[in-house]
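Work Package 3 (structural annotation) set out to generate three-dimensional models for the target panel prioritized at the project kickoff. During this period the team completed the workflow that converts sequence records into discrete structure tokens, so that structures can be stored uniformly alongside our sequence database. As a representative example, we reproduce one entry of 304 residues exactly as it appears in the project archive.
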Amino acid sequence: MIRAGLLAVLLALASCGKARAPARAEALAATPSDLLPSDLDFVIRIDAARLREHPLMVGLAKGGAVQWHDTMFAGDGSGVVRLVWPEIEHARSILLGGRLTADGYRGDGVIAVEQGAGEPPRRTFSSDAALSRLRSPSRRVEIYERASAERDEAALYIVMDGKGLVLATPAEMDAVLRVLRDGPDAGRLDPPPRGLVSFAGRFRQGDKPPFPASAVSLREVGVGLVRYAGSIEADDVLRIEAELVYESEKQTAHAAEVARKVLDRVALLGPEYGSLSDSARLAPVGTALGLRLTVPFALIARLH
């Protein structure tokens, strides 16, 4: 159960206002990431260019991306994993955004692949009979719709000439098209620009962090959590930094206490787990809980 809880922590960190900018020509989306709407509950940014320099991380990231795509686009007969992955391998950055429901994550989201400088698009969709081309506000932007898409399939495909690709599920299709028409949303989640991976997320009133029901201690850590942000860096180990913001100072202090107890129990599982536990630094300040953690690659490979 502790192992499952540890996996939940890592996944939550990597995953744990709707005002619009004026609709001016200069405010229109300049890059694929500009098309992420403000109604997303989490956004993960991957520095693909740097990731490719780290062989072990490339393998882990590819496995994670395929698993994420398989979950998000299950049942898509177009083989969206095979369709998107070649572009990911040559991307400058990738952003994965999603929405949570009362039942947790159910596949509603957006993927933005930002093209590397000088890299041509890996493919177009103009010959795909399952897609219908929609009217575009720009000659440099192609828009396609899959009308038969299920909830967790790609319903919207946007190709920005020389810049990259955006995919959206049916629940996010209208929001992405609105942003394309009116310009980037104010208040959208923006992961910090550092690390191989960075992330940002929030929980709206009544939402609960999606920890497994069996991970009682981790569910306690999530009580009162309002938003979070952080980054993951890799050298000889994986370095995680995050800030968790709670509704009250009391909840922050309680979360820090529970997290420390979880880490102490993790240390009993063996030397690599002990190293992880010893590296953890928890710093509650007001309603914010700072977290620093290093994870040995041997442990990541075992859990992967």
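Residues 209-303 form one domain.
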